[in-house]
Amino acid sequence: MKYKHFWLAFIVIFGFAGASFGQTINSTTTVNWSNNNATLLMDQNGSALSTGAGGNNNGALIQLGYYNQGNNVNEFLGMWVPLTGAGATLNTTIGDSGSGTDLAAGRFDFSPTTWHFNTSNVDIFDSGLDTAFYTTKSSITITSPAPPAGQILSIRFYNTNTVGALTLYNAVSDNSWVWATPTDAGAILPDISLANPGVNPLVWQDPINPFKTTLLAIPEPSTYASSLVGLGLMGLAVLRRRIRHQRS
Amino acid sequence: MVRLTLLNPTPMSKTTNSQIFIKNSNFPCSPQRNFLTSPPLSQFLQMSRSILLFVSLAGVVCSATLSAQTATTKPVGFTSTAVAAASVRALALPLDNVPEFTGLVGTINTGAFTIQTLSAGWTTNGFGSGNFNSTNANPHIIRMLTGTSAGRQYRIASNTLDTLTIVSSPSTGFASIANGDQYEIHKVETLASFFGATGTINGQSLTTNSDANSADNVLIRGASSWITCYNDGTQWLRGATASNNLVLLPEQGFLLVKRTGAYTVTVAGSVPISNLVTDLPATSVVSLANRFPLATTLGGLGLDQLPGWFNSSDANAADNVLLRGASSWITFFFDPAQGSWVRGALPNQNSTVIPAGASILIVRHGQGSDIAFNQALPYSVQ
User: Fold this and answer.
1) Rounded Cα gap, residues B90 and B175, in angstroms
2) Which of A43, B106, B176, B318 lies 20 to 30 Å from A196, alpha-carbon distance?
3) Do A89 and A136 form a contact (C-beta atoms < 8 A)?
C-alpha cells in the first residue's frame, strides 16, 4: 500500500514541476503498459488475439484511453476516448514490439508510450532505442484539461484490426491507472501491467468474461457510415427480393 | 609525477563523497600503493575504504596499456552518493571505466563510419557487437582526446583486428576526425553491469519485484521521455521487455527511484582527462550528467554564455535547467534583466551547487539553436 502511495506522490512531484510554469512544447506524459503470458487477451472463443502478419500495426486493435465520465465507482461510464490507435493511422495492436518482432498472440507491451502537449501525435516506443518506433494518434489533442488530471484510464481491446459492425471488444481498468498532465520534466504514470495490477483489482467492462472480447463495438464514424451503407444495401436487396417474390 | 590541480574549487555536496588517486607515469604493474592523493582535492573530500578497489583498477590499467600504442597516465578514484529510502535522485557516472585502449587514428573513413589503427591487435568484436541498448552486452565507446572533435564520443558497433565501426547515429562531428587524432576506448555501463543483473552488486541490493510499481526504478532519458526500468529479481525489464543491456552513457544522467531502504551509488573508474562535448538540441529535454567528478554551480556551467542558449525573463520561453530537489524538480533560468540565474522570483542563483555524481535536466524550448556544449577540464593533469 505504501509503495503505491509513494508512487502516486512521485507522479504529483513530476506534475508539479510543470505546473509551476505551465505546459510547453517539451511537456510529456509517459506510461508503460503491458501484459504477460499469464494474462493473455483473447477473443470470444478463448483464442489468443491475433498479432496479424509479421511486424507492427497489423494485429488486433488495442487502445489505451478513457471513458469520459469514468470514475472510481464506474470506470466505464460515458464515451470511449482512445488515446492511442485512433483514426486511420498506425494502430496500436496486439503483438507490436520495439524491435518489430511480434510478441506472442494475445500479448502487448507498449513501453514506453509518450504523449506530447498540444498535439494528438503519440510516440509508441522510443525513437532512440527502438528500431520499430512509430507514431500513432490520440482521438483528442492533449492539453492541460484534456484528459483531466486524475482521469481513470482503461485499456480497450478488440478482436479485429479496425472497428467494424461486427467487431467485439472488452475493456479493463484499475483505479490506480490515472492520467497526469504533461510536464517539461516528463510526467510518468505508474506502470500499467495486467500481470501486476497492484492493490486494486482489475475491473472488466464485461466482468463475466474477463480477458475476452465479448461486447459489440460501435464503429468509428467513417467505418460506421460505410457499415450503414452496407446495411442499407442489404435491406434494399431483401426488399427487392420480397417484391420479386410477391410478383411471382 | 602527475598532479591534478583543481581550477575552480566548489564545495562538495554533503551527500556525495569522492576520492581521486593519482599514479605516476612509471606506474608498475604490481599492485603496490603507488599513488598520491591530490593535495588540492583532499581538503574537500573524505577518505574512504576503497584502496583495494583502486589496486584492482590499477591492475586493469597496466594490462590494458600493454597493448596500447600510447602509454597514458590516468587518475583513478570513485564517487559515492547516498540515496535515501523513499526518494528520487538524479544521478550520473562522472568517472569512466579505465580505458582499454588508447591510440591514434590511422585512417578514417567517414562514409563507412570506420576508424583504422594499424597493428592495433584487437580481438574481433572485443569491444562488443550487436545493437546498443538491446543485444550488445559489452558496449564500448570511443572518445576523441585531440583534434577538432576532441571531447566527443561515439558508440562502437563492431571491430576487427584493427578497425572500429561506429554506430552511424548519433555521430555529430565524426566527419571532423583526422588522421593522427588521439582517442581512447572505454567500456560503458549497462543496467546489469552497474546495478547487477539481479539488482545486487558489491553487497548492495535494489528493491526488486515483478511489479514495476513496487520495485526500485531506474529512469533513463529516451528520445523524448523517461524509460522506466526495474529489476524483477532475475533481470532488468522495461514493461515486459528484457533490458539488461540498456546503457548508462557518461554524458547522460539517470533517475534512481528508491522505494524502500537506502542505497549508496558508488562509481569507480578513471577521471576524464580531456574536454567533454555534449549535444543540446534547440528543442529538447536532455538529462545532462555533471560530467566531471567535482561539484560545479549553475554559474560555473556557463550555459547562459553559450551562443544558441536562450535567456529570457519568461521561464516558458527561456531555456531551463532543472535540478532535482529533495522531492521535486526545481526550475532555473537565466534572466538577462536580473543578470543572473533565477528560480521563480528568486534572483542570484548562480552559486546553486550541482554535486559530483549528480545530473540535471536541460529543457530547451526551441527559441535558441543547437548547442555543442564543450566543457573544459575543471582541473589540469600535469
Assistant:
1) 33
2) A43
3) yes
Amino acid at A212: K
pLDDT band for position B81 (cuts 50, 70, 90): very high
Bond prior to B39 in cis (omega within 30° of 0): no
Mutate to test the interface with A, among B227, B313, B359 (most CBs of A within 10 A): B227
Query: CB under 8 Å to B22, separation ≥6 — which residues?
Result: B2, B3, B4, B35, B36, B37, B38, B75
Please determine, for residue B222, whether its predicted confidence score (pLDDT) is greater than 80.
Answer: yes
Distance between CA atoms of B70 and A42, rounded to whole angstroms?
Answer: 62
> How far apart, in whole angstroms, are the C-alpha atoms of residue A174 and residue A75?
8
Residue A29 has pLDDT above 90, yes or no: yes
Nearest partner of A7 among A188, A174, A152, A239, judged by Cα: A188
State the complex-level ipTM.
Answer: 0.71
Any alpha helices (H) in chain A, and if so which ranges? 2-19, 221-247
The residue of chain A nearest to residue B327, with distances taken between CA atoms, is: A13
Sequence-distant (≥ 6) Cβ neighbours of residue A242 within 8 angstroms: none
Exposure letters B7-41 (e unless 16+ CB within 10 A, then b): eeebebbeebbbbbbbbeeebeeeeeeebbebeeb
Q: Which of A151, A191, A141 is nearest to A27 (CA)?
A: A141
Please provide the DSSP assignment of B42-74 as one string: HTT----S-HHHHHHHHHHHHHHHTT-SS----
- Whether B213 and A7 lie within 8 Å, measured CB to CB: yes
Task: Give the separation between CA B214 and CA A10, rounded to whole angstroms.
Answer: 13
Residue among B213, B225, B366 whose CB faces A4 most closely: B213
The 8-class DSSP code of residue B301 comes to H
User: What gap in Å lies between CA A204 and CA A213, rounded to an integer?
Assistant: 11
Measured from the Cβ of residue B286, the count of other Cβ atoms closer than 10 Å reads 21
- Among B residues 315-374, those touching chain A with beta carbons less than 8 Å apart: 315-316, 320, 322, 327-331, 344, 361, 363-366
Residue B181 is placed in which grid cell? 587524432
CB-CB under 8 Å, A186 with B285: yes
Confirm whether pTM is higher than 0.90: no
